[in-house]
Amino acid sequence: MSLNTNTDPVPQPLLERLAQVEQRPELGAGRRRLVVVMGQLGDFDSLEYAQALAAALPRLEAAGIGLLVIAIGNDAGAERFCGYTGLPRHCLAVDRGPELHRALGLYAGLQVPGGPWPALLLMCAGIGSPGTLAEVLRGYSGDRQAPQRLQSPLFALLGSGYQRPFELASTRLGNMVEVLGRWRTYVPSDAHLTQRGGTFLLDGDNRLLYEHRDRGILGFSETMARPLSFLKPFLDPEQSAQPGSGTQA
Length: 249
Known about the structure:
Blueprint: H1 12-19, E1 32-40, H2 44-62, E2 65-72, H3 75-85, E3 92-95, H4 99-104, H5 116-124, H6 132-141, H7 153-156, H8 167-180, H9 183-186, E4 198-202, E5 208-213, H10 232-235, H11 237-240
Parallel strand pairs: 1-2, 2-3
Antiparallel strand pairs: 1-4, 4-5
């Protein structure tokens, strides 16, 4: 969904979860809060999203927006996840199962006979996972609307200032190698491999400013080329109000 100009309340399960971490003042009532509910720590979406959030954290802090990421996993996985993605450990909470996801009505992913692995493979092929194949292809083909990711002489041959062909695919391959090499650290149980997440931006008075509910693999944002573009009005409100201003976060 786009920015919410109504006065929709924040889902109660989310408020209850925030109440459990109120030792962090930036997540208390009266402050804007960005709550990202991810699937498994070892989900490739989780690593890619966390890397984007870690890079944006100084701007979030400057804008007075507290960040809480909640994912399925355990403490050992959380330590490894934060060390790899750059997300500060205090920003990440882990649950052993998808109880919060269910309470929020988030997409559990494709459910088929045979368990989570066949379902995951089908979702990777785009079944029950809209937009996945197009997003995989974008990682290989490049994207003139997306920012450059890597400083590499090889990719420099293709130019600079935009996402070059194979650049995003290379980043995703690195994430895949990291997870597969430490699978049980990142994914203690295979039971919830297909679970998708959601993004919720809360105002200080507990109004819902923005939400996005993932519909498939590589669908953690409505604008995958610039996945944090929904934050633009809150990070740079004056610039966002100008005609023709961009949406890169």
